[in-house]
């Protein structure tokens, strides 16, 4: 039997992900895992269903995220030593769907990196209504603004599905990011992008017509998150009608009616898993908004 796993050896060290030959034999209460590797001791674990290995607590193994971190401009300009140190200090936390990641007006002590899943950035209304300001997916970062100005979080962040997020402390942020000129340039670029996105959303929600708002937001999402193919632009954010309503400041029923009309007109297509395809006809009509 082959197993790819991580073996926890002490409170501060993790073995890298490797593949081992193992044999499993069960006693009455415990499972004994013999790892055939020179110099490695045997690891004992409490018996679990199906022979799965359990560990106490959540042990973080960051090596699987190295490639993703290196692809993020903010991290790509760190030298090897700095990158390794920053990577070691990142904590990982898992959030279930619709769980609050960060609450508006909370004191921000971390910058957040989305390892998997998606989150929405919202302002919460008095009756629990949400106005969506942005969506962050795998590879995006957020929370940097509050670290820079030492103020509270400007909005609430909620997971849209089961999501893994890396947390980078303000102390590490200040030490490795604010003293690196190339990284500072990337921070300015991120802040400019945030401002541009906010302006586009503000422009969309101030349009007088509900259909214009929805079309403007869909076009905005296509530019930010869409993937172009032969059919048009595919938006795979899997937004519900309620979430689109939160983006456009119109009712869910209105969003449903308008989407149905756009499908009938051949402007877009609703694919599986709430994926939206913006067809060329959609783009042509945007020129007249």
- Biggest beta-sheet profile: 4 strands, antiparallel
Compute the number of structural domains: 3
Distance between the termini: 61 Å
CATH topology description of the largest domain: Jelly Rolls
What is the level 1 CATH name of the largest domain? Mainly Beta
What are the low-pLDDT stretches, counting only 5+ consecutive residues below 50?
A: 1-60
Number of helices: 10
pLDDT averaged residue by residue: 79
Cα shape: globular
The tally of beta strands, per DSSP, is 16
Give the full name of the CATH homologous superfamily of the largest domain.
Jelly Rolls
CATH architecture of the largest domain: Sandwich
Order of helices and strands: EEEEHHHEEEEEEHEEHHHEEHHEEH
Helix percentage: 25-40%
Lateral strand order in the biggest sheet: 1-2-3-4
Task: Note the beta-strand portion.
Answer: 25-35%
Walkthrough of the structure:
With 289 residues, this protein is of the alpha+beta class. It has three domains: 2-51, no CATH class; 62-202, Jelly Rolls (Sandwich), CATH 2.60.120.10; 207-286, Arc Repressor Mutant, subunit A (Orthogonal Bundle), CATH 1.10.10.10. 35% of the residues lie in helices and 27% in strands. The protein has ten helices and 16 strands. The chain has helices at residues 66-71, 73-76, 80-89, 144-149, 170-176, 181-205, 210-225, 241-248, 252-264, 280-286, and strands spanning 2-5, 18-26, 30-35, 43-46, 91-95, 100-102, 110-116, 118-124, 130-137, 141-142, 156-159, 163-169, 227-229, 232-235, 268-270, 276-278. Strands 1-2-3-4 form a four-stranded antiparallel sheet, with no helix packed on it. A four-stranded antiparallel sheet has the order 5-12-7-10. Strands 6-11-8-9 form a four-stranded antiparallel sheet. Helix 6 (181-205) runs antiparallel to helix 7 (210-225), helix 7 crosses helix 8 and helix 8 packs across helix 9. The longest helix has 25 residues, at 181-205. It is globular and about 55 Å long. It starts with a strand and ends with a helix. The model is unreliable at 1-60 (pLDDT under 50).
